[in-house]
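Can't paste images in this forum, so I'm doing it all in text. The chain is below; anyone willing to post the predicted C-alpha cells underneath?
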Amino acid sequence: MTRSRARPLAYFAALALLVAGCAVGPNYEPPELTVETVPDQWRTTVEMEMQADTTDLEMWWVSFNDSLLTELIRRSEFGNLDLQAAVGRVAEARAIRGVAKGGFWPDIVLGGAYSYQKLSENGLQGAQVPPDDGSGGDATSLLADPFDSWNAGLSLSWEIDLFGRIRRTVEAADAQLQASVEDYRDVLVTLYAEVGSAYVDARAFQTRLDFATQNVTAQENSLELTRDRFNAGLTSALDVAQAEQNLAQTRSTIPALEIGLEAALNRLAVLLGQAPGSIHDELQDHTGLPQPDDKVAYGIPADLLRRRPDIRQAERLLASQTARIGIATADLYPTLTLGGSVGLEALEFDNLAEGTSLFWSIVPKISWPIFTGGKIRNQIRAEEARTAQALAAYEHTVLRALEEVQNALLAYGQEKMRRDRLREAVEASQRAVNLVETQYLSGLTNFQNFLDSQRSLFRQQDELAESSGQVRNNLIDLNRALG
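Text version of the structure:
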C-alpha cells in the first residue's frame, strides 16, 4: 500500500481514537424520591414482635410451622408454569444482551462461489472489450464462449462506535436483563403468597366443615330429643318442626363449603403445575390451620426500595429506557464503518491457489444524515417521552407498594382483633347452649331459645374459622407486600 493511500486510513483511525469513549445522550441517574413520597415511618403499626433478621421475611412460610406448607411451596418452584415463563423471559433478555454486545465486533463472512456464464457482446461488459483484431485473443473469447469463474474469500464490516450508539444499546440491554431478573423474583414472591393463601383457604374450609358437621350432629340429637318429648306429650309438634328446620338450614351450608374447599385444592394443584384434583389426598387429613409466629420484620418504608422486586424492576426499566435516548441521539452524528474483502478469484479452478488470483479491498465509509425531515429529532423526543412515562411508572410502583403495606398492616391488625372477639363470643355461646339446654329440659325456658342459642353458636363458630383463616391470609399479604 502506498503512503498516499495509507494516509486516509490513518485519518479514520485518528478520528476513531479522538471520539473513543464518547457516548451521546443522558447518563442515567437513579431517581430521588422525596420524603412526601416515602415517609419515615408507617402510619399504621401492628403490635407484634419485630425481627431484625430479614431471613424470616424472605422465608416467611417457615414461621407458619407447617411442614406440608413448606413442602408445597418448594414444589411450586419447580412446577409452576408462570415461573417457568419468567425463566424464559430472563433467558430471552440474556440472549438479546449478547446480540447487543456483538455490535462491538466486526462481522466477518466466509464465502465462495462458482459461476458458469457468457457475456453479452452488446451489453456494457461487451462494450468494454477491445474489438477483435483477428488474433483470437482471450478478451474476444470471453464474449464468444461461456466460461467458468471461481472465487473464495472473506468480507468484513465493522462499525466503529464513535458516538456510543452500540454502548447505549448494550447499556439498555443490560438494564433490561436486570429488569427481567427482578420480574422473575416478583413472580416468585407472588407465587409463594398464592400457594400460602390457597393452602390456608383449604384448611379454613376444612375447619368450617368440621364445625358444620359438629353442629349437624348436635342438632340431630336435639331433634331426636324433641321427637321423644313430643311422643311423650311433653312438647308440641311446633318444636319438632322448628328443630327440623334448624337442622336442614345447618345442613344446607355444607355444599357451599365443599365447593369452596374443592376450589382451593384445585387452585393449589394448578399453582404447583399439576392437574386439578391431584393433591386432594395429600390434604385429606385435616391438621388444622397453620399456627404462625406473631412476628414480622416490616421495618421502615425506605426498606421497600431494596426489598420489593417490582420496584427494582421498574427502576431498571427506567434505566433501560434512558439509554434508548442515547441510541436515538447517536443517529444525529456520523457513522464510521470499516469494510473490506480479501480472497481468490480465477477462471480455472487449478489457478485459484496462485498468488496472482489474490484480490483485496479496504472500504472505510462515513455516513452522516444531514436531512431526514425531522425524523431523528422526533425519535429522540419520543424516547424522552417514554422515559418520562417510565419515571412516572416507577414512582407509581413505589406509591402502590407503600399503599399495599399500609393496607396489609391495617387489615392484619384489625382482623386479629376481630378474631379474638369472635373467639370470646364462641366461648360465651357454648356456655349459653349448655345452660339453655338444661333449662329447656327442666321446663324453665321455651324451645325457641334453645334453637336460637344453637344457631348463634354455629354462626359464630363459622365466622371464627373464617376469620382465623383471614388473619393468616392477611399475614401472607403483608409478607408479600413487604417483598
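The first helix runs from residue 3 to 19. The first strand starts at residue 107 and ends at 117.
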